[in-house]
Write the structure tokens for this entry.
Amino acid sequence: MRRAALSRVPENLKLHYIVDGDDFTSAGAASGDTKKVLRQLGADPEVIRKVAISMYEGEINMVIHANGGVIDVEISPELVTMVLADHGPGIPDVNAAMQEGFSTAPDRIRNLGFGAGMGLPNMKKYSDSMKIDTEVGVGTTITMTVRMK
Amino acid sequence: MFIHSVTLDADKCMGCATCIRHCPMEAIRVRNGKAFILSERCIDCGECIRVCPHKAKKAVFDKWEDNAGKFKYRVALPAPTLYGQFNNLDDVDYVLTGLKRLGFDMVFEVSRAAEIVSDYTRKLITSGELKTPVISSACPVVVRLIRARFPHLCDHVLPILAPIHLAAAIARREAMESTGLPSGDIGIFFISPCPAKSTDVRMPVGLEKSDVDCVISIADIYKDLLKQMNKVTTPEMLSHSGLVGIGWATSGGESAGLLEEKYLAADGIDQVIKILEELEDEKLRDLEFIELNACPGGCVGGAAVVENPFVAKARIQLLRKYLPVSRNKFTGRDTKGTEIGWTSSLEYVPDAPLSDDMTEAVKKLQHIEELTKTLPGLDCGACGAPTCHALAEDIVRGKAHRTDCLFILKARLEELFGEVRGGIAPKTGDKEQ
């Protein structure tokens, strides 16, 4: 008689970040930290790049437009999942926002290189899947995944 | 005594008078076929180094090989300009790891201090304590230019440490804490894009003494650093700067870090002087912040860099992408309790006064104006002075003669021998008194 082998599934690594909407200078800290964690785990450089960019763009958007929010990252041996949730104004027209060059960013941060209108398009480009849940006056939640190699 | 880092290699100097015409302070003369710098007027901008066709103008820096052995613990302070000097670089950590492989024990990025300065400046401007427009004090050439020529702008200069001095102070404290060594055993080495910083470290403005021990030029260290960088397979995670700090390397970067809109950023010494003149005439009252960089493109255009400033700027733009906005703030944790403000205020020190006595000075000035009218007005430089007006001034100061002017000399010869052919000037004979 063969015994069924029991496998122990390790806990996935969970990272939780609070993104401060009042402090623009701290924008990018969360994605920077996740990048560092992935490096320490020895993840494939291409995977790190995809996660870093897609999460960075989402985090910057959260600070510029939504007055901050919360980011939860779950890392399993197969998949990185990022959930970015805010109680900002919501996106009135998602199709328009997904167009390259469309930006509602204020001028003062354009001098730093932001506001080119590539945020959402980049998030879609660099993630393997992206889901946008948004309601005007309520907030936005974006869920992205990147598969490990 | 004036210490300058811009010097002349007399063997290479051909006395061509190119440098004298480009010096913004009219601080160079040619005598007996060789150029020499009037040290009381020199602001170390490096223009003469840029324009000399014979490579006779040089910047003096400390050498890594000569100084490494003097300290038990060596700290490298790379200017962010360094990051833009390399092709195919996508991660600043390669540069920092390379520096450690060269023999530095610790690396502290100047861009970290730049972010602290940006944070503090943002707060200071919001407080309304400063006279607007505020002029950045990051470029030592600009500070010296204002001190020598623009008395009414002295109290507009931002009275806080330039990032290099702040970085050195913080790095020294960090090094002492982590090693337990006394201050004298710790060597702080600034890796600099320009000679002006070399002078600034030895004779700082606004502070008693800088914490920087040696200033090494980017050009000198480049080859050896590149060799080490090429050997690095997995870089150490050493960088702790955001895109604000690294952006300070290019003109406009410092201003962008203030998250303000009412600013002006200018680069190149000629434009800097024009802007300062407009400021003095109170033409720029609507602006809050003025960033001025003596070098073209900002620090990336310093005289000690290896790469074209605009190529470096493009590379730095790419390196900054997807970096956190800022990773350093004006907090006790990031500053390690060091002081950020100047300990003395900027006082007007005219670089070449005609006389301490006002009546005497006015008389001399009149004499200079009269003399200038008798000169050809070509500003050709053949007399060794940059302009006819400068020659007139030199004559009044007893440093030159009217016959230093070739055309005056020609006129004298013609008096003696009749018409002498050649030359481009109109006859000066009828202009003589």
Residues 100 and 118 of chain A are 5 Å apart (CA to CA). Chain A is about 30% helix and 25% strand. Chain A has a mean pLDDT of 91. Chain A touches chain B through 19 residues (CB under 8 Å).
